[in-house]
Design a protein that fits this description.
Blueprint: E1 30-33, E2 50-53, E3 61-64, E4 78-83, E5 91-96, E6 102-109, E7 116-122, E8 128-133, E9 143-148, E10 151-161, E11 164-173, E12 182-187, E13 195-198, E14 212-216, E15 222-233, E16 236-246, E17 269-278, E18 280-285, E19 288-290, E20 294-298, E21 306-312, E22 321-327, E23 339-342, E24 344-351, E25 357-365, E26 372-380, E27 388-396, E28 413-417, E29 420-428, E30 441-442, E31 446-447, E32 452-454, E33 460-461, E34 465-473
Length: 476
């Protein structure tokens, strides 16, 4: 969904503070606020976070959110967060070519650290920029590889083949013919050139849903999930949930045609049909908008196994319900709901090397002034017949008041490496240990006894939305 042009506040740098920390909770679980000490005085809404990391170097990570350049709204660049110690600490690099801040942004690593690829909606005017950095720790602005207008929600995934990186950017392209806007930009040469491939083969109401989500396995099988919008009644969209597949990394002339639905023999498996997507670009669920929630993950080592999550409205009693399903035969058939989560959004999925699936999501509990955003990571080894549940955060849903939408994000991020799930989410940043049951570490200046954020001089700072990195051990 498109974001409006947002005025950016100026943030004053402050001296390195002495930070009080709460006691540690469970061994092996980390939750870290990404805002650096130098920006302790900021009160921005750092929504819609994303994470990129390397399998070959666990120290290097990149992250992003709707974060302004501390230099202000006239700055020619926008920041990403970088870590060289495995996520324990984060700093900013103003390397994205976007005025003052970004709108939607996602990114993924190259085969050789510290290469990074990104897709952003550049401020102002929100054209797509497809970017590359040979070293994302460098202060140099990322290199622009491709650009065009009239797109929404770029979503980047990568894989390496020999010495070349393949880059897959899912996006909603409003210039696509016949309203079949679900598109993947594919580069087989490290972003030197991109080719746009249309996914939709059926009629739409004039466009597909904003979310076009690729996932890549190590054998170069590529899955992509999207919403096939078929009709609407007011703000309610009737949609199919569709998955396409390419078995050779999308190197052919007509990729993403390897998964055909038995009902009409067209490419794209209809996982669910005629679901109701309540489209609301207003603060509808815990001050968040709804309508584009979609996630897919493939078992990187066993590409037959793929998980899918989306949100729709089930009946008159719910606002928004997340569904999780699985296929064990390369998307040909799908389970029923493995998890059904009412009043939830932002599901992200990842599958570890031992086959454990992780499900990150954010759910509104309670009502009115007592409502809370609860961020959970669930893990399962048996298709969610049983699962382990870890609450990473439980924070007030009514404060702070939203500055713009998305409030916490149309997506967050979950990845896996070795025996860890690693991810990122945005939430109310009140320094209260009760809000973070597994503990939390702040870089910015805080005072836990009084539950206050502090600027460099020790003055109170208003509560806002911050991005939080986490790591959780994978079930053995």
């Amino acid at each position: 969904m498109r974001a409006g042009v947002i005025a950016v506040a100026l943030f004053a740098a402050c001296e390195q503070p002495v930070v009080k920390q709460p006691p540690a909770k469970l061994t092996g679980i980390r939750v870290v606020d990404l805002i650096p000490a130098s920006l302790s005085g900021e009160s921005w809404q750092d929504a819609e976070p994303f994470l990129a990391l390397y399998a070959s170097n666990p120290k290097l990570m990149a992250a992003s959110a709707f974060t302004p350049n501390p230099g202000g709204s006239t700055s020619a660049t926008a920041p990403i967060f970088v870590s060289d110690d495995g996520g324990d600490s984060w700093t900013l690099r103003n390397t994205l070519p976007s005025q003052g801040m970004t709108a939607d942004i996602t990114h993924a690593v190259g085969g050789n650290p510290p290469v990074l690829y990104a897709g952003i909606m550049k401020v102002p005017d929100f054209p797509l920029n497809e970017l590359k950095a040979n070293d994302f720790f460098s202060p140099a602005t990322m290199t622009l590889q491709a650009s065009r207008a009239d797109i929404d929600q770029p979503f980047v995934r990568t894989t390496g083949v020999g010495n070349a990186d393949r880059v897959y950017v899912g996006l909603n392209d409003f210039d696509a013919p016949d309203g079949r806007t679900a598109t993947v930009d594919v580069s087989l040469n490290g972003g030197t050139s991109y080719t746009s491939h249309r996914l939709e083969t059926r009629n739409t109401l004039g466009q597909n849903g904003p979310s076009i989500r690729p996932a890549v396995a190590q054998d170069h099988t590529v899955y992509v999930a999207y919403f096939g919008w078929r009709s609407n009644a007011g703000s309610d969209v009737t949609s199919d949930v569709v998955v396409v597949r390419d078995d050779s990394g999308a190197i052919g002339a007509t990729p993403f045609r390897d998964l055909v639905d038995p009902s009409d023999h067209l490419p794209g498996r209809l996982v669910a049909t005629h679901v109701t997507i309540p489209w609301s670009n207003a603060p509808t669920l815990g001050q968040e908008r709804i309508g584009s929630t979609l996630a897919i993950a493939v078992d990187a080592l066993h590409s037959d196994n793929v998980y899918l999550a989306w949100a729709d409205r089930v009946g008159t009693g719910d606002i928004y319900t997340v569904h999780v399903r699985r296929s064990t035969d390369r998307g040909a058939t799908w389970s029923g709901d493995l998890r059904t989560l009412t009043n939830a959004t932002d599901p992200s999925l990842a599958v570890s090397t031992n086959g454990t699936v992780g499900l990150l999501y954010q759910q509104v509990t309670g009502s009115a002034s007592t409502s809370r955003w609860v961020t959970r990571l669930e893990q399962s080894r048996d298709g969610f017949a049983t699962h382990q549940d870890v609450v990473l955060a439980t924070v007030p849903a009514t404060t702070p008041t939203f500055q713009f939408l998305p409030y916490i994000g149309d997506y967050n991020g979950l990845l896996t490496r070795g025996n860890q799930f690693l991810g990122i989410f945005s939430a109310n940043n009140t320094p209260d240990s009760a809000n973070f049951p597994q503990g939390v570490v702040y870089q910015r200046r805080v005072d836990f006894p009084t539950h206050r954020l502090l600027d460099g001089s020790g003055a109170p700072v208003a509560v806002s939305i911050d991005p939080f990195f986490f790591s959780v051990p994978v079930l053995p």
